[in-house]
Specification:
The termini are far apart. This protein is mostly beta strands. Strands 1, 2, 3, 4, 5 and 6 form a six-stranded antiparallel beta sheet that branches. About 17% of the residues have low confidence. The chain is globular.
């Protein structure tokens, strides 16, 4: 019998692939509302804070999605009303008193394709020489 992974025994396949149940999603749209920041203390006494934003997706049938930023990401990303953004998000549902609640948490923000807002910006470099000069090494 021929195997798609050559002569590797089947028990070695888990080491080749990382199996995960985590789902990664991206949302793009315009920030149309910034809700007030909320905070408190957990059962363990740890302080927490969260700020939610309403993102409107583009298209023939736009959707409005409430997205949360937690902790230091609030200042790190600094989302403002009117910005066009792409968000990498985690979606999680939890049960409380027989009801289910779903939260969309952003962990990365990109503005108009300019790169991650949380990453350090790098200066743009055109070339080592001005127009009209021959190709020369810069040293």
């Amino acid at each position: 019998m021929s195997y798609p992974f050559g002569d590797l025994p089947l028990h070695s396949l888990p080491s080749l692939f990382k199996l995960t149940s985590e789902v990664k999603m991206e949302l793009s749209g315009k920030v149309i509302q910034k809700l007030p920041e909320v905070g408190g203390n957990s059962k363990n006494g740890n302080a927490w804070r969260k700020q939610e934003f309403i993102l409107e997706t583009p298209g023939q049938y736009p959707k409005k999605v409430c997205v949360a930023l937690w902790g230091d990401k609030i200042e790190q990303f600094g989302l403002q009303v009117g910005e066009q953004v792409s968000l990498s998000v985690d979606v999680e549902s939890r049960e409380y008193n027989g009801r289910w609640y779903t939260e969309v948490k952003a962990y990365r923000v990109e503005r108009n394709g300019t790169g991650s807002a949380g990453a350090a910006s790098t200066p743009e470099v055109d070339t080592f020489h001005a127009d009209g000069e021959e190709d020369q090494l810069p040293f």
